[in-house]
Structures are given as C-alpha cells and as structure tokens.
Design brief:
38% of the residues lie in helices and 21% in strands. By secondary structure, the chain is α/β, with parallel strands linked by helices. It has a five-stranded parallel β-sheet with strand order 2-1-3-4-5, with helices on both faces. Strands 6-7-8-9 form a four-stranded antiparallel β-sheet, with helices on one face. Helix 2 (37-46) packs parallel to helix 3 (63-71), helix 4 runs parallel beside helix 8 and helix 6 crosses helix 8. 32% of the residues are buried.
C-alpha cells in the first residue's frame, strides 16, 4: 500500500524539498527530507526506504558520493536531480549506480510520474500471478531470482542496481532475441524518448563488469553490431 512506501529526498534547496515533499505526500507516500549529504546518510541508516531522490550538488557530501555509498548497502531506486545537463554528469551518475536522472528545472508532474514508474517496477517486479510466470531464470552458473530481486553467479550473490536488474531480467527473459537501444530504453525506463545512447550503454557496461568472466569478451550480454544487444545462453534444464 502506498502509505507504507517511504521516500528520502536530499536537496539543499528548501523550496524544491518542500515542493516535492508536498506532491509526494498527496500520493500518500511517507517522506523524509535532508538538506545535505551527511543528513541523507544519517536518515538512511535510521529508516528503510523504497526510493531515494538525490540532488547532485549538495553541501558536506555531494550526491555522487552519497549515491556511491548507498549503492554499497541497497539496491532501491536512486534518482538524481541535477542543474547540469552536460553528458559527463549524467554518465557519472549512472555509472556509480543511479537509476535515473532529471535535470532542473523540471516538471513536478514528470518527476512524480518517474518516481511512480520506478516504485512500480521495483516493488512488484516478479509478483505477477499466473501459471506461466517464472520466479527463477537459470543459465548455467547465472541465476536470476525474479521475486527476490537478486542475482547469483556461481552461487555468489551479485549486487545490482534496480535498473541493472530490470535490464538483465528483461533480456534474460528473451534469450537470443536482439534488441535495439531504443527498445531496451522503452522497456526498462518506461519511456519512449531516448535522449542519448549513453543511458543504455552505461548500464550494459556495468552489467558486464558484474556478471561476465571477461567483460571485454562477454558471453552473456553480446553486442550485435549495427543493431543492439542480445542475451546469449540456453536455460539450465537441470
């Protein structure tokens, strides 16, 4: 239920904190707000959150470092707010574990919609009912637990971000099927507008670093030149 969902907002701009808090509380979410990175980390240690909204530029500890530390402890969706629109800032945020970013000034309605989409995917992924629904996808030494939202490689659990998991889950559910970057973005990011190729490429690269024996010569997530990517591998029948 939505009133059980708790969100952390970290932004040094009080007007933005209050605006976002007001709109999210209308959705009956429980909201905590932090004015700097240190306070955000303290709140995270004290409460269990379902989503975290981080400003890139914050005093004491900036959003990038906060995100980096949080990713060592949680896989909940992390959305970055930034006044910068340079490509390097977006790539940096995604590369250290952010699931999405939105550039200031932003539409509050778009932000709320994105938050809802991330929560929906994170909280209900793998919970669909029906006799055809699989709860585990097994590929030799790689196992994807849909309901637990975890991945194990040779029996050892691998920590993925929410978007990394969704990307792997989607591709692994359609082995050998080739997807363009736009198709992957539409499916995983719940949007038809692909602003640039880096969003998908960064997540593919991070996934390879985590699940491949040799990321430079990937066996699982393969590039199909001129088209996109595919997940290669037969399901484990054992």
């Amino acid at each position: 239920m939505q009133h059980d969902i708790r969100i952390l907002i970290a932004d040094d701009d009080r007007e933005i904190r209050d605006l976002v808090k007001t709109y999210l509380e209308r959705e009956t979410y429980r909201i905590d707000a932090a004015a700097d990175g240190e306070e955000a980390l303290r709140l995270f240690e004290a409460h269990r959150y379902n989503l975290i909204l981080l400003d890139l530029m914050m005093p004491k500890i900036d959003g990038i470092e906060v995100c980096r530390r949080l990713r060592m402890k949680t896989n909940v969706p992390i959305l970055m707010l930034t006044a910068k629109d340079q490509e390097i800032d977006k790539v940096l945020g995604l590369s250290i574990g952010a699931d999405d970013y939105i550039t200031k000034p932003f539409s509050i309605h778009e932000l709320v919609a994105r938050i809802k989409a991330h929560l929906r995917r994170f909280l209900v992924l793998g919970s669909e009912s029906g006799p055809q629904q699989e709860t585990v996808l097994s590929f030799k030494n790689l196992t994807i637990h849909l309901q637990k939202y975890t991945v194990t490689k040779a029996g050892e659990e691998i920590t993925l971000t929410g978007k990394e998991f969704e990307l792997l889950k989607f591709m692994a559910s359609h082995p050998e099927q080739v997807f363009t970057k736009t198709q992957l973005f539409r499916q995983v990011w719940d949007s038809d507008y692909l602003e640039d190729d880096n969003t998908v490429m960064v997540h593919i690269r991070k996934l390879r670093m985590k699940i491949e024996e040799d990321p430079s010569d990937p066996k699982w997530i393969q590039t199909v030149w001129g088209i996109g990517y595919k997940f290669a591998g037969d399901k484990d029948e054992a």
